[in-house]
Description:
Blueprint: H1 5-17, H2 23-35, H3 47-54, H4 58-70, E1 74-77, E2 87-90, H5 92-116, H6 143-146, H7 171-177, H8 186-205, H9 210-219, H10 222-234, H11 238-258
Antiparallel strand pairs: 1-2
Helix pairs in contact: 1-2, 1-5, 2-4, 3-4, 5-7, 8-10, 10-11
Organism: Bradyrhizobium betae
Protein name: Helix-turn-helix domain-containing protein
Pfam family, one: HTH_36
Amino acid sequence: MPVTPLETLLAHKVINLAVELSGAEKRVAGALIDHFNRRTGQCDPSLNTLADLIGMSRRTVMRAVARLERLGLFRKVRHGGKFHRNSYEPIWSSFREAEDRWNDRRRSRKQKFASLGVSPSTGPTRHPEGDGHGHQTYSSNPLYKTLAVKRHEGSIARVAPVASSATKLPRKEFEASNARAPTTSSADVARIAAERRWSDNLRCELSTKVAVYGAIVDFIDEPLRIAATEAELNCRGAGLRLILQRYRDSAAEIGGRDE
């Protein structure tokens, strides 16, 4: 069944609103959707293409793709595209489910204020003198429900009494209306910060040695990235030391074999 333009538009909407995605991950996901061919189903941009278009390093793109896979938004087929590149398949059902959750939150919030029957605005405390033109803050606000305030002497009192307390919501509806959007756990936040620290430290340490920096970036694979992040979590600066030590050990081992 062909993918419609509405589904790709919905995918971009979900990506922009996803609180669990970082800025880099949103940009990579948006670029993958943009490369998707609705007629053929082909989506196989190279990592270098994505990195050049988005303005990121190849390693950052690889980490973002792996994260999008873990979240169930894309499926990667190794060497499934042209020129032995990886092929990426958007999981449209995941995007539809995410969009449904967003709409549920919007409906719950709207229902909370609709049940009260009064405006959520904290605007003017009463209507302007003489019932002149004013800003209406809620489509269903009758005049007498806005606020019971006495007018100046000499004006006609035309205000009906207001209930002393707001209508209580049913328990299930109250819980749904107060449900918060899922947020990134504190452990994930700490890991992201730790990875950013050792990455920044590496860049600063080798700012004048571009060739060495590029070689080390290419040397860092997924297991080493995870190990460096865990080391940085335990002790600041340990992530950079671990990467440099692993790189030196690998260079020494290669040099020994060459001899």
